[in-house]
Design brief:
The chain is of the alpha/beta class. The strands form five sheets. It has an eight-stranded antiparallel beta sheet with strand order 3-2-4-1-10-9-11-14, covered by helices on one side. Helix 3 packs across helix 4.
Length: 613
């Protein structure tokens, strides 16, 4: 849940490291730090808060020539796990001698016992972190070979790590390794960039190497050698990034979140493009690697994910059961492997993760593989761990998502799940004509979303009436229930308003006790089966003084009559309607957070990619 950058090459390291950290700041922004080797001198600068603080502090602490003459180093932006976000707890951490510096993503689970053992040998620790223990452990094993010291230390570690290590005793060298936390190497012209996310590499090169678990790399400016932790050489292919560096810029928008909301018509077109077969009334998803016969033999679908991905999975559950006549269930990825799930070879497990690195979802993938299930990944990041370990699945093609609150990844997840359900439906009970009709509905999704985004100013005006509230309820039925959950999540993530999503029928089973005059209820009252029941629930809320914002199907006067405020959603299939409805709630949350003056792209306590359990 943190960002790592390393650079070794012909240029000055500090500007490159700072630029990389800014690209990764969405992964963690509690504190930041850099370590530079200048000749044989190890220099470290750290600061609590954002990368801008580190930039100013390092310029004060380090001589100006360091920012222009060749050097190499490592850097880190932190999302706090062990210890508060202070300068002492910020990375990089040094060993006892002060000759080694290390940055680390992940969690060292046995750090307490390791620390006690090292303290008994006279080691003195300056922070509360688990990472400093690993730095000391490497230093304790360090004689003449930094690579071997890192190997020896990692053999004693329990937990997850993505690390980069430098030593003033061995100039011209960075050691990096991973287990459960991503590391990617950018291969440039006489330079190598190390990062936990390709976003930090884009400005330098499109050629990358992804490390696998238990890989350890010896990185020099013009050479990379990869081995495993037993010092056995391994080969890792060089891949080409299919990303544009401009995607990591705001492009004139006030926030990345607003930019990414407005990008959704195009991202959805990219997710859908070439994947619909109108002649057969099906979808073309080669990444699934399955024949119609194999799809027909699947007896059950289990969708696993966390947060926003869990909500898209809930919509997928409705789609697979409605379109493919296949029992489906959604499980929280963090619980999956601990509850000893009953799954087998006739079950399809779909792991949903924007980053493809979510620790809990990756653990679920490994458990499903262990039990012999048919496993697929649904990821946005090419080359991510889940994509590699499942070996089959579908990329979203949503493009880089910088804002912590997910927008376009969510809608692309739902669109891809609808196409998967269509494909499975055609291998079962869906007729060709039904498939053709639904494929046309999917094809129209980008246009439907564009129509909602065109209401941006209208939604902004509505948000002004709700921004002062500290509580809100979101309600919906059928496939709109997961949209209610996602809408509540977006609002609480970026505006810090206490928001809860409920099935509309559940409101009177307890939560209605909290309603009072003016309490906002955001009701997904689209024209779908059960709408009349939802309208009844809305009347119950109004009777208790609640203020109702309704998302309704365009032209539905009956629904509009019971609302205080209305956002119209274009008429479409109930499953398809989940996507434009979610976009409307994204805009609603964005404008409330903007009015409240919140830090929208980097909300407090949150990180983009949750790579620890």
């Amino acid at each position: 849940m943190c960002g790592i950058v390393g650079y070794i090459g012909k240029a000055a390291a500090p500007p490159i490291l700072l630029h990389g950290l800014r690209r990764l700041e969405y992964r963690g922004y509690d504190s930041a730090g850099m370590a530079i080797i200048d000749g044989r001198q190890l220099l470290v600068s750290k600061a609590p808060g954002k990368v801008a603080n580190l930039k100013e502090k390092s310029k004060c602490e380090w001589p100006a020539e360091l920012f222009s003459q060749p050097s190499y180093g490592i850097a880190h932006t932190r999302w706090a796990t062990h210890g508060p976000p202070t300068e002492a707890n910020a990375h990089p951490h040094r060993d006892q001698s002060g000759e080694i510096a290390l940055v680390h993503n992940g969690i060292i689970e046995n750090y307490r016992s390791l620390r006690a053992r090292l303290e008994a040998k006279g080691h003195v620790f300056l922070s509360e972190t688990d990472t400093e223990v690993l730095a000391h452990l490497i230093g304790d094993r360090y004689e003449e070979n930094l690579f071997q010291a890192v190997c020896d230390a990692l053999h004693q570690v329990e937990g997850t790590f993505g690390i980069a290590v430098i030593s003033s005793r061995e100039p011209g060298l960075i050691i990096t390794a991973r287990r459960g936390s991503p590391i990617v190497l950018g291969i440039g012209d006489g330079e190598t960039i190390i990062a936990s996310d390709a976003a930090a590499i884009l400005a330098h090169t499109q050629r990358v190497i992804y490390l696998d678990d238990n890989d350890i790399a010896i990185v020099k400016a013009d050479h990379v050698e990869i081995r495993d932790l037993n010092n056995v050489p391994v080969n890792r292919a060089v891949a080409e990034l299919e990303l544009d560096a401009s995607a990591a810029e705001k492009g004139g928008f006030a926030h990345f979140m607003l930019k990414e909301i407005h990008e959704q018509p195009e991202s959805l077109r990219n997710a859908i493009r070439g994947r619909l077969d109108f002649a057969l009334g099906s979808s073309v998803l080669s990444g699934m690697g399955t024949s119609p016969r194999e799809l027909a033999e699947i007896n059950r679908i289990v969708l696993v994910g966390c947060g926003t991905s869990l909500h898209s999975g809930l919509i997928g559950e409705y789609a697979f059961e409605d379109l493919a006549d296949t029992p489906a269930e959604v499980q929280q990825a963090a619980e999956f492997r601990y509850r000893n799930p009953i799954i087998g070879r006739s079950d399809l497990v779909i792991a949903i993760s924007q980053s493809g690195e979510t620790a809990d979802t990756l653990a679920a993938v490994r458990e499903a593989n262990q039990k012999g299930a048919f496993v697929m990944g649904l990821c946005n990041v090419v080359g991510s761990t889940i994509a590699r370990e499942t070996g089959r699945g579908i990329y979203l093609h949503a493009g880089p998502e910088i804002s912590v609150a997910s927008t376009k990844a969510f809608t692309c997840q739902v669109a891809v799940l609808l196409m998967m359900a269509l494909k499975m439906g055609r291998s079962r009970r869906f007729s060709r004509q039904e498939g053709m009709d639904f494929a046309r509905q999917i094809e129209a999704i980008p246009s439907l979303v564009a129509q909602v985004i065109a209401q941006n100013d209208h939604i902004a005006r509505i948000a002004e009436s709700y921004a002062a509230n500290e509580h809100a309820f979101f309600i919906g039925r059928g496939p709109m229930y997961p949209v209610a959950l996602e809408g509540a999540l977006k609002l609480k993530e970026i505006s810090y308003i206490h928001a809860e999503g409920y099935h509309a029928a559940e409101l009177k089973h307890g939560p209605i006790a909290l309603l009072e005059k003016g309490t906002p209820v955001i009701a997904l009252a689209n024209d779908i089966p059960g709408k009349d029941k939802t309208l009844g629930n809305i009347e119950e809320c109004k009777a208790r003084g609640a203020r109702i914002l309704g998302l309704i199907t365009a032209g539905d006067e009956e629904a509009a009559a019971v609302m205080d405020d209305v956002i119209e959603i274009p008429a479409c299939h109930p499953l398809v309607a989940t996507i434009p409805s979610a976009v409307a709630l994204q805009l609603f949350a964005y404008h409330i957070a903007r009015i409240r003056g919140c830090e929208i792209d980097q909300p407090r306590n949150l990180a983009k990619s949750v790579t620890v359990e």
